[in-house]
Sequence to fold (42 residues):
Amino acid sequence: MAGHVGEHGPLIEASVAGEPERAARLARGHVEGFEQAIRAAI
Fold:
């Protein structure tokens, strides 16, 4: 799970930099990856 927490940094950076497409791509990848990790754990 620590890797998923580390994904927040680039997402925040993209948001602050005013890069909505990049932020959206990172957010989507983060959520999808986290979902897969949770499903694998249960």
User: Anything to note?
Assistant: The radius of gyration is 11 Å.
